[in-house]
């Protein structure tokens, strides 16, 4: 139904004010000649009862063009400019990266009005100061379980302060060729640091940290704000976020409705009384309340816990991004306006990212990504051994540190460029040639560890990893090295070459790190090798050659271009 058919000027769809110009291929804002342009709406949150803005008249149908004079027939028309679809695609590059970002960069319509929609909070010095166009980008995306908003008080604890229920660290590579969306389980046991936090009156209060608590308490608990979640993520991963974005339950409902629903797939029937999701097996298009029920369900999928819910959320977000990237969305002015409104209403961002202009710049950077090189992964965890009936999880130290190190060193989780792949093959072949020969079993390796420039306690943590996870039981901590080294080295005698090759494979040592020399005597009086951890040491269980690191074999991951069904 067009604007005239509605019968009231106030109900005109903003998209109906944009009219296609057949000569240029562009949509143009058409206003009546005698009417002034509509004023920018007053800030929604700044004024409780803003005056209603004037509304432009409905668009007028163009009269059929007159027949050209005979002498002018056959003249070539001017070349058309870029299509509206391509221009929207350029403007809304963020639609390929994440729902919140996609909506936030939806265009230049009603700019001041959209700016007024956005809520912001201080980063309290917990960020890098904001993303940079020529650097890798790290955005902390937080979905809270706060029950505010229409229809949300019936979900779980309606008194929730809004904890970090769903948290994703989105890393975009410096060359924009790939990205990783790393989910952090809400029930992961972490240490929350002290958090300087700006209060409503502008003063700063330090909220005390907590040791050995659930990750989701880094937000909401005791007045903690998203900046505290930022600090917790930095302490956990070693990656300092550039910006944060927070969305509540309404974000899922309004954004999915704005795009006309998102297709999801179920491998089995689901009837979850807790999330209110009731769907048979197969493909379905969900939006609004049903979409929220889908991303909240956990008891009826996988093992019935939060880790299973993370997987279904990743599948949902992948599908939503494919929908946002589709021409059906990008070339629809109506949908783009709805996305802009819904996205800015749903967002709470840090003060360094509090305008449509900044979100647009971020979206254009993210829009350079291809969904096949956007990897969804989950931090490697295991059941908490301190609990008889585990309800929380702890890090799998080796694999988790390996994943954190890959993100920190801007290493892709997917194969991106053919040249890089061929280069890596040559480097791997060269290392393999230097390390060619027999290899001992892990239990036969004898090695002592020295700290030669790594962070305090590194030798002890690496020893724990070697003995408990790598099977190198004949290893021991020998304290500090006599001097600091820039790079980690392994010194061994000629008759220990088979042990050295095996340990190099476990640690990811390059041929350059192997130092033929002499063995020493361990505490049992037996000959042993010496592993000296240098300044390049990244963490217990992390491969030393970070640029050629590969994701752990059992890492739960998927790419955004793949259609997967919830099991």
Describe the structure.
The protein has 567 residues and is of the alpha/beta class. It has 15 helices and 26 strands. The strands form eight sheets. It has an eight-stranded mixed sheet, sandwiched between helices. Strands 20, 21, 22, 23, 24 and 25 form a six-stranded mixed sheet that branches. Helix 14 links the parallel strand 20 (446-451) and strand 21. Helix 6 (249-258) crosses helix 7. The radius of gyration is 28 Å and the shape is elongated. The model is unreliable at 1-19 and 31-109 (pLDDT under 50).
Q: Report the β-strand fraction as a percent range.
A: 15-25%
Placed side by side, the strands forming the largest sheet appear as 3-16-11-4-5-6-17-26
Structural class: alpha/beta
How does the overall form come out from the CA principal axes? elongated
Helix content: 25-40%
**Integer average pLDDT:** 76
Report the major sheet. Answer: 8 strands, mixed
Rounded Rg = 28 Å
Contiguous helical run count: 15
Count of DSSP E strands?
26
Low-confidence stretches: 1-19, 31-109
Span between N and C termini?
41 Å
């Amino acid at each position: 139904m067009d604007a005239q058919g509605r019968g009231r000027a106030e109900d005109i769809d903003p998209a109906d004010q944009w009219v296609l110009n057949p000569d240029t291929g562009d949509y143009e804002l058409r206003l009546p000649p005698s009417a002034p342009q509509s004023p920018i709406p007053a800030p929604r949150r700044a004024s409780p009862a803003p005056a209603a803005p004037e509304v432009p008249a409905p668009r007028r149908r163009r009269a059929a063009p007159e027949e050209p004079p005979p002498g002018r027939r056959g003249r070539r028309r001017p070349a058309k400019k870029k299509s509206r679809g391509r221009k929207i695609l350029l403007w809304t590059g963020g639609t390929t990266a994440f729902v919140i970002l996609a909506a936030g960069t939806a265009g230049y319509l009603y700019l001041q009005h959209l700016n007024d929609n956005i809520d912001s909070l201080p980063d309290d010095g917990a960020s890098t100061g904001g993303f940079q166009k020529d650097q890798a980008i790290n955005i902390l995306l937080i979905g809270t379980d706060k029950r505010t908003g229409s229809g949300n008080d019936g979900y779980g604890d309606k008194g929730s302060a809004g904890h970090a229920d769903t948290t994703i660290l989105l890393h975009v590579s410096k060359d924009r060729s790939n990205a990783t969306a790393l989910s952090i389980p809400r029930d992961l046991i972490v240490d929350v640091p002290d958090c300087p936090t700006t209060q409503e009156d502008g003063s700063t209060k330090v909220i005390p940290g907590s040791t050995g608590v659930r990750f989701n308490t880094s937000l909401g608990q005791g007045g903690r704000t998203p900046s505290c979640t930022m600090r917790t993520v930095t302490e956990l991963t070693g990656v300092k976020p550039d910006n944060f974005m927070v969305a509540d339950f309404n974000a899922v409902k309004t954004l999915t409705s704005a795009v006309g629903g998102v297709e999801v797939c179920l491998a089995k029937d689901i009837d979850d009384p807790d999330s209110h999701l009731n769907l048979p097996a197969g493909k379905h298009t969900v939006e609004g309340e049903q979409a929220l029920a889908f991303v909240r369900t956990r008891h009826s999928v996988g093992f019935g816990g939060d880790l299973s819910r993370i997987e279904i959320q990743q599948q949902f977000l992948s599908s939503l991004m494919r929908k946002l990237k589709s021409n059906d969305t990008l070339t629809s002015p109506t949908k783009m306006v709805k996305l802009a409104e819904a996205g800015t209403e749903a967002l709470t961002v840090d003060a360094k990212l509090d305008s449509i202009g900044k979100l647009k710049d971020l979206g254009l950077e993210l829009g350079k990504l291809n969904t096949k090189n956007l990897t969804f992964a989950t931090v490697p965890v295991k059941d908490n051994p301190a609990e008889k009936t585990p309800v929380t999880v702890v890090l799998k130290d080796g694999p988790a540190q390996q994943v954190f190190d890959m993100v920190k060193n801007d290493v892709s989780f997917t194969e991106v460029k053919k040249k890089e792949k061929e280069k890596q093959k040559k480097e791997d072949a060269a290392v393999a040639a230097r390390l060619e020969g027999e290899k001992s079993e892990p239990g036969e390796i004898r090695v002592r560890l020295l700290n030669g420039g790594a962070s305090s306690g590194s030798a002890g943590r690496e020893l724990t990893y070697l003995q408990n996870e790598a099977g190198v039981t004949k290893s021991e901590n020998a304290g500090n090295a006599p001097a600091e080294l820039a790079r980690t080295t392994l010194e061994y005698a000629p008759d220990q070459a088979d042990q050295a090759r095996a340990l190099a494979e476990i640690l990811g040592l390059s041929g350059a790190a192997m130092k033929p020399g002499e063995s020493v005597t361990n505490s049992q009086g037996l000959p042993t090798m010496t592993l000296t951890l240098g300044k390049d040491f990244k963490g217990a269980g992390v491969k030393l050659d970070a640029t050629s690191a590969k994701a752990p074999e059992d890492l739960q991951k998927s790419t955004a271009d793949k259609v997967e069904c919830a099991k």
